[in-house]
Structure formats: C-alpha cells, structure tokens
C-alpha cells in the first residue's frame, strides 16, 4: 500500500485475533456461565434490557427460555446485538479474575503500536459489543492496548455486511470514506465497506484459514497474511 490512509478501521476475530480464541475460550466461557449470570443479575437494568429484547423477538416468556435460546445462538455463532451485549458482561468477570487474556497476533500488536505512533487513527468495528471490545484490548496477551484505539463501533451502528454501517462510521469519524482503510477476514464485510467507498484489505491468516483464499475468493480485495503485509506492499 503506497500510503496508508489516516484512519485504520479493524475487525477483531480473524483479523487482529485468532478465531480459535473466540470460539474455544470466550464462547464456552459465556455458554457455561450464562444461566447463573442471568439468574443472579435478572434485576440489573442492562441485563433486563437485553433479556427482554430476546424474549420479545423470540416470543417466549421466561428467563430460562431466553437463556436456552442465547445458548443456541452461541453454538451457532449468531452475531446478535443482545447476545453480544450479554457475552461482554460475562467476559468482564473472566478478564478481571484473570481466567484468560485476549489473543492478539504479535504482528497486529506491532503494527497497531507503529501506526498509532505514526499518527494514524485506529478504530475498531466488531460484532462484539463496544464494552467487550474495550475489555478485549484492555486485557490482551500483550497487555493493555486500549489506548491505541480512539473509536469503537459494534452492531448498534448496523450490520457488518451492510454498506450503510460503514457510511455511518465514516460520518461519525468525520472522515471521507476513502480516507479509511477497513481490515477484515470476511469478504462480505469488505464488500460492504468498499460499496461505501472505504479502502479494504482482506486478512487471510493461515492459522484461521488453512485453505488460502486466492483468485475470485478474495472478492477482488487486496489480500495479506498478517498486519506486517499491510503497509509493506
Ligand atoms: C471483542 S468480543 C469477542 C469477539 C466476538 O464476540 C465476535 O463476535 C467477533 O466478531 P468480529 O466481528 O470481530 O469478527
Ligand atoms: Mg472477523
């Protein structure tokens, strides 16, 4: 990339961080603790808000039914805003008690630090809720990376496969779309970002995608295998 755009907007799972950490550590942690968590916090306003939202959407009445639905959604990797908000609350306990730290690829840590030091603005757009994103970067394997990120977006801004979400993010960042580079492992997300005028790069990490996505499978997006390839080419 000849000149790196001023703003770098990055996805998390499969991009800065391994899919396996999310699927094999975070999701099982939430799945196991969800019933006790909802029972213990049933009167907390934020918990109630999301539990009631799922109950209304699914047409069920009891918290136990909602919990069963949420656990099915975890197994199916549904990127539902209510699930993501509740997962974030659950993971808070795990990070604070030191049960795990968040995986961030060393090449991503190095590039994020370098871009930040060079004056680039770094923003995150993930299906994980904003509080979950902040916990993630605040408790990474490489320490607290939260200060590197100056803006956070989740699906309350809109779905990651919808061009309108990226237009909203550009507006919120007060930036021209083409001054933003979006990094993701998901071609459909990159397609949506490109349709909104953003620059795009596909992360195709061998650990996450053992079959390289080349040719048509890249969707015409520039493909790299790690963050060190982004401002190298
Ligand atoms: C930062 S929260 C953990 C990741 C997560 O729950 C998730 O759904 C990640 O999706 P992404 O949009 O970052 O691929
Ligand atoms: Mg991803």
TrEMBL record:
Keyword Magnesium: yes
Enzyme Commission numbers on file: 3.1.3.77
Pathway: Amino-acid biosynthesis; L-methionine biosynthesis via salvage pathway; L-methionine from S-methyl-5-thio-alpha-D-ribose 1-phosphate: step 3/6; Amino-acid biosynthesis; L-methionine biosynthesis via salvage pathway; L-methionine from S-methyl-5-thio-alpha-D-ribose 1-phosphate: step 4/6
Renumbered residue ranges of the record's region Disordered: 208-233
Cofactor: how bound: Binds 1 Mg(2+) ion per subunit.
Gene3D superfamilies assigned: 1.10.720.60, HAD superfamily/HAD-like (3.40.50.1000)
UniProt KW keywords: Amino-acid biosynthesis, Hydrolase, Magnesium, Metal-binding, Methionine biosynthesis
MF-aspect GO terms: 2,3-diketo-5-methylthiopentyl-1-phosphate enolase activity; 2-hydroxy-3-keto-5-methylthiopentenyl-1-phosphate phosphatase activity; acireductone synthase activity; magnesium ion binding
Cofactors demanded by this protein: Mg(2+)
Example of a GO biological process term: L-methionine salvage from methylthioadenosine
Coiled-coil spans in chain: none
HAMAP family given in the database record: Salvage_MtnC
Summary of the function given for this chain in its UniProt record: Bifunctional enzyme that catalyzes the enolization of 2,3-diketo-5-methylthiopentyl-1-phosphate (DK-MTP-1-P) into the intermediate 2-hydroxy-3-keto-5-methylthiopentenyl-1-phosphate (HK-MTPenyl-1-P), which is then dephosphorylated to form the acireductone 1,2-dihydroxy-3-keto-5-methylthiopentene (DHK-MTPene).
Protein name: Enolase-phosphatase E1
Organism of this sequence: Luteimonas yindakuii
Lineage, uppermost ranks: Bacteria, Pseudomonadati, Pseudomonadota, Gammaproteobacteria, Lysobacterales
Gene giving rise to this polypeptide: mtnC
